[in-house]
Every structure is written in structure tokens, then in C-alpha cells.
Amino acid sequence: MATTSDIRNGMCINFNNDIWSIVSFQHVKPGKGAAFVRTKLKSLTKGKVVDHTFSAGHKVDEVRVERRHFQYLYKDDMGFHFMNMEDYNQIQLPPHLVEHPEFLKEEMMVEVLFHAEKDIPLNMDLPLTVEYKITYTEPGVKGDTATNTFKPATIETGAEVRVPLFINEGEIIKINPATGEYQGRA
């Protein structure tokens, strides 16, 4: 059992009969009254994000998790299929465990979070930046590059992102899959 002083970002806890990951936290010690910890929790099984406040010294049940590297293979009506690159075992994840599936492309390396004791997958994380080829975008208008404006573009996975006006069809760009934001040219 851990206490609120042990809370850190990324820590997984058992709370309200579910497994939650701590997205952010803040220790607050007001001038009057008892100290408390304000947290933002994300459910690893449902994907829901909630705010919760723990009183200082409150005991939390920490869950041990493992991160394993997998390669994305394909999607079918059963879900998303991944292969462990160490032992070549394949797993299938239901769609609700996969965040931002529109940015998945074949042979992409991802991290799958597993419950260490029960050996069940909890969540799938994409890399921080991924390179994609632009399959369609309108050409930029000459002389319209002075301002920081963006235009819609379709990438090779079929997802639509916003890119600067100087990006053309066929170019390879870097995108943050968590937010869908343009990061730069590859």
C-alpha cells in the first residue's frame, strides 16, 4: 500500500473497482485546513478521465504494470492485432483499449501496458512522434505563407490532420498521434 506522498505521474492504482493511471497530480497545502492531493485519473479499461481529490496521507492501492513492445499487424472485425517482437506471440486488443486508432499504420512499434499479476492488456500507447506520407492536400497559394495558417491534409492511414500551407502532397511529415498536431517535416 502506498500513500498520497508516493503518487507520481504514470502510476497505476486500483480505485473504485477499476485500474486508473495518474495523468497529473498536485499537492495542495492551504493556509487553513488539512493538506490534500488533487489528481487527474484515467481509467485504463474504459478510457474515461476524472478529477479526484485525496486527503493527505490517504492510502492508495498501487497496481504493478509492465510495458511490452509490440508491432501492429492489422485490424479486422475482432479488433486490432499485434505481435510481440521477442517471442512472436500475437495478441488481439478490442477497439476501446486502442487510443487514436486512426494513426496506426502497419508494422508500427507500440507499447502495450499489461497488468503484471493477471497478465491482461490494459492499454496501448503510440510513439510520441510518427512519420506519415501526405496522400492528399490542396496546393498552397503562392504568397500566402507569411501567416501561421494551416490547411487540411489526408495522411496514408486515412486520418485528416492540419498542416502548414507549404506542405504538399507526397511529402513525409512528423505528427504527434496523441494530439494529431503537425510537428515538422521528416
The number of helical runs is 0
Q: List the strand order in the largest sheet.
A: 1-6-2-3-4-5
Radius of gyration: 21 Å
Residue ranges: pLDDT <50 for 5 or more in a row?
A: none
Task: Tell me the overall shape.
Answer: flat
Main sheet characteristics = 6 strands, antiparallel
CATH architecture of the largest domain: Roll
**Subunit arrangement of the protein:** single chain
Head-to-tail CA distance between termini: 45 Å
CATH class of the largest domain: Mainly Beta
Strand content: over 45%
Sheet/helix structural class: mainly beta
Task: Please state the average pLDDT score.
Answer: 89
Question: How many distinct beta strands?
Answer: 16
Run of helices and strands:
EEEEEEEEEEEEEEEE
Total domains, how many? Answer: 3
Written overview of the protein:
With 186 residues, the chain is mainly β. It folds into three domains: 2-62, SH3 type barrels; 65-125, OB fold (Dihydrolipoamide Acetyltransferase, E2P) (Beta Barrel), CATH 2.40.50; 130-185, OB fold (Dihydrolipoamide Acetyltransferase, E2P), CATH 2.40.50. It contains no helices and 16 strands. A hairpin with a 5-residue loop joins strand 8 and strand 9. The protein starts with a strand and ends with a strand. The mean pLDDT is 89.
Summarize the structure.
With 186 residues, the chain is an all-beta fold.
Descriptive key words:
mainly beta; OB fold (Dihydrolipoamide Acetyltransferase, E2P); single chain; 186 residues; flat; 6-stranded antiparallel beta sheet; SH3 type barrels; 3 domains
